[in-house]
Amino acid sequence: MNVTISSQHNYRRIVLAISLSLVAIALVWVFLPKAYGAQLGYRSLLLSDDRVNVSATYLLNFNITDPETLGSLKVQFCSNDPIINDVCIAPQGFDISSVTLGSESGVTDFTILASETDSNTLVLTRTPSTYNGGGVTLTFDNVINPADPGTDYARLLTYATSDASGSFNDYGGIAFGIVNPLQVTSTVPPYLLFCGGITISGFDCSTASGDYVNFGDINSTNTSSAQTQMVTATNANTGYNMYVYGTTLTSGNNVINPMATQDVSRPGISQFGINLVANQTPLVGANPVGPGVAAPTSSYDVPNWFKFVSNDVIASTSQPTNYTKLTASYIVNIPSNQSPGVYVTSLTYVCLANF
Amino acid sequence: MHNRLLALKRYAYLTISLVFGATATGLVFLTSTANAAGQVQNRSIEMSSSVPSATGVTYLISFKAATTTTIGGIAVDICNDTPIVGSTTCVYPTGFSWGSATPTIASGTVDYNSASPYSGGTASAVWGFPEAFVGGGGANYQTLFACDATAANCTGTTSTISVTSGQYIYFTVTGVTNPSTANTPFYARIVTFDTVADLISATTGYLPTADRTSTTRPATFTGEVDYGGVALSTANTVSITATVMEQLTFCDSGPNGGGTNPITSYCAGTLTTPSITIGNGGTPSVLSFTADYGGYIFTQATTNASHGIVVNMKKTGTQTCGGLSSDGSTCGIPASSGTSSGQPTPAVITAGTAGIGLCVQPGTGVTATSPYSGTCTGVPPAGSNNPPSTDQVGMNDTTYASLTNLESAYGSQLYSSASTLNSANNVLEFIATASATTPPGIYTASYTLVATGTF
């Protein structure tokens, strides 16, 4: 009895082993290499724009290695893989059905076979004839990109038939990516660069130094003069106006007359005035320098002519200006009967940008 | 009887296993016989190929002597029905052949070594002039006689070897032709004899003259020392196919919270929107005309494209220029490059001269394309978002003979590789500055990065 049971057990094992063998054989058969043609070489797909959902131009390149009868080309777009004969899942949102064929090289007589073209499959047709091999470049316009970022695939198949029927000649896969666009943002604030000092190196406001001008002893026979510097720049759309505020030189109740109207230096006459240009009489000041377009106003831009009226606009520009260095010249003349004393004033320059 | 049945069941099962495993090595097979001699152990016949009808196959015949004695010859008989020594039939496996009437024993040597048939023997005996016979009614040579003789067909002066029980005896026969039926077991019967004369005896030897062209075998042999059976099998060639599909994994990201690259291998990690604000880092972060500031975008490419990849950058905004625009039309902060012989080149951005440029800090296997190939750090200095003022950047906004620009159909080439890439991280370092007259406003540009593999 035991022997019989053992025999039945072995029989089942035999059946099982045979079954497994058949399965193994079947699997081997399934995965045997298919009789594919050659793989297309140098395959690439260049997108003019790889943002999701946009219309783009696709530049397809590939190389047919050996001569073959070429009647059609199928380009199939899939989201799952580029493997020929595998199930193709169309990329979400992708649409090539309205494509137009742009430039062609290598093979130049392809046309779109509309009857075989759908949203993710494009078939190009030509009169079947021998193509001796070589590079092929095709441009597809008006392709709607997939809706999702990530990697998608194209499968290429060449056929001897004109409608992509029958077995294919050559094949190849391409992977291409859809990525998020790159955004660069930068904020440019309103600028007004304005600084002053006795001296400023170049246009570097950090080097401005000094804010005290000492004319020394003044007399009725010579003009006393001095100068200061200012650097300005602005990106204000309509430029800026520079004002001067303050009083003339005073010493208690004694004053040196401000030059209410533009005039030249006249020693022996009570005068206090400024301008923003280079002067010869007296030898003081400098013309504006720099790449900017700011300039002294007409009352303060004539060499050797000076004026001082508080609240006057002494320099301006009607547009954005790059660096401009302005040099303010100061002259003092007194009559012989000018009361002695220490004459002092404080001037304030205001630069008002108009954004 | 029951034991015989069990033995047959086991035999069948082992055979199936052999086919399933597609092995070319004969498996040890055990039968019980009434033979008085000892059964050789660890016996096997290793085939160099199990492909049906394969020719030029080498059979390595190996077994351990069961008896301490002298051996003058060995019979190896190939049968299709059973490996049982003493069975009175031996069906010829269609297509099998030892190769010729005088088959080739490799190097003419039979080695006996106590270690293993694969460790190399130190003691050996030259066994030449073997003989094979057409048996079982087949058309080829079915039965092999291995012997130590000085003339063909185990004749002339013969000698013996002394073996100890447990000692390996092994030899190879070359030029064998496999049976023609695929995935089918066949068997070898091995019998050792005390002398050559007993082996080849026309009446009491392994294969009497009357049986040399038939399926008949004697039940017993004179001078038999040891015996054993081996199962072998032919098998179809196993074809293994693995498809590696075209791969291109490309991604971009802004920095993580710590200002560094968040992309891990194969575009994993917590990627951020590839959007950067270039400025002084204040609130708001603004651009200056007295300094240049930078921003960083990280990209990673992995591909098995054998001819490498090309990554282009293309302007996608409405402006008609490649730089930053505040009005969607003109570029108040234009694309900036140096020039050399009419070609854009990397150059240092000078603060106060409005412009934006880009430098690629390439990863392994990647080459940046001019003007993006300047010297740059590719990472923010510690505690600052202001790249070194010596970093060189560029941005190709003009068409040159060999370079397409940001506004062309497919953009401007940033970098490329000559072959495959494995998670190559490539940092895009942007540097921008304004001029004193750059109108205030929010300047933007949108670019798309297009990676193209050539497979």
Outline the secondary-structure elements:
The complex is a heterodimer of chains A (355) and B (455).
Chain A: H1 2-30, E1 41-47, E2 55-64, E3 68-78, E4 100-105, E5 111-112, E6 121-131, E7 134-144, E8 150-159, E9 168-178, E10 182-188, E11 192-197, E12 224-234, E13 240-246, E14 250-251, E15 254-255, E16 263-264, E17 271-275, E18 295-296, E19 305-306, E20 312-317, E21 321-333, E22 347-353
Antiparallel strand pairs in A: 1-2, 2-7, 3-6, 3-8, 4-7, 5-6, 8-9, 11-12, 12-21, 13-20, 13-22, 14-15, 16-19, 17-21, 18-20
Chain B: H1 2-21, E1 27-29, E2 38-39, E3 41-47, E4 57-64, E5 69-71, E6 73-79, E7 104-105, E8 109-113, E9 124-126, E10 131-134, E11 141-147, E12 149-151, E13 155-158, E14 161-163, E15 168-176, E16 185-193, H2 196-200, E17 224-233, E18 248-253, E19 275-278, E20 293-303, E21 309-315, E22 338-340, E23 343-345, E24 347-348, E25 355-361, E26 366-368, E27 392-393, E28 412-417, E29 421-433, E30 441-453
Parallel strand pairs in B: 2-17
Antiparallel strand pairs in B: 1-17, 3-4, 4-15, 5-14, 6-11, 6-16, 7-15, 8-9, 8-15, 10-11, 12-13, 16-17, 18-20, 20-29, 21-28, 21-30, 22-23, 24-27, 25-29, 26-28
